[in-house]
Design goal:
9 strands, alpha+beta, 6-stranded mixed β-sheet
Length: 145
């Protein structure tokens, strides 16, 4: 009887530990439903929302978006952009990336524009540019239409 109680207690504590260690998930389906520009290894969803954001910048109208990219392992990386009519507050968050390495964390910058660069095979890469630290940050890649 005592062995059964100890065994059940061990199982119960193990389950609590496992539940406490699991991180909350933000699936690509959740991101798409919430309106994030969602970048999976195979495609980009809600691209029209990104195009609306670019239009807001050209009209100097306040707007904000979230670009959620997923690693091959399925971990989300968040890029939040808030355009205030003049500058873009940019935030990069890879804290949920299990393989993020030493550079894991949240980085914020003030930037001035979004640029695009054509690539081979009909692809266009978009970058957040004109940032305080003089770096351009990759946002996403789409097929040239």
């Amino acid at each position: 009887m005592m062995k059964n109680v100890m065994f059940l207690t061990f199982i119960f504590i193990s389950m609590l530990v496992l539940m406490g260690c699991s991180k909350s998930s933000y699936s690509s389906a959740d991101a798409i439903k919430k309106g994030d520009i969602t970048v999976t290894p195979s495609e980009v969803h809600n691209l029209e929302r990104f195009e609306q954001f670019l239009q807001s910048i050209s009209k100097q109208q306040e707007d904000k978006i979230r670009v959620t990219s997923y690693t091959i392992e399925g971990d989300p990386i968040f890029q939040d952009l808030h355009y205030d009519g003049d500058t873009i507050q940019y935030s990069y968050d890879n804290t949920n990336d299990a393989f993020g390495g030493q550079d894991k964390g949240i980085k914020t910058e003030i930037c001035t524009s979004i640029t695009s660069k054509g690539k081979m095979q009909g692809k266009i890469e978009y970058y957040i540019a004109g940032c305080e630290d003089n770096f351009d940050y990759y946002l996403l890649e789409v097929s040239d239409r």
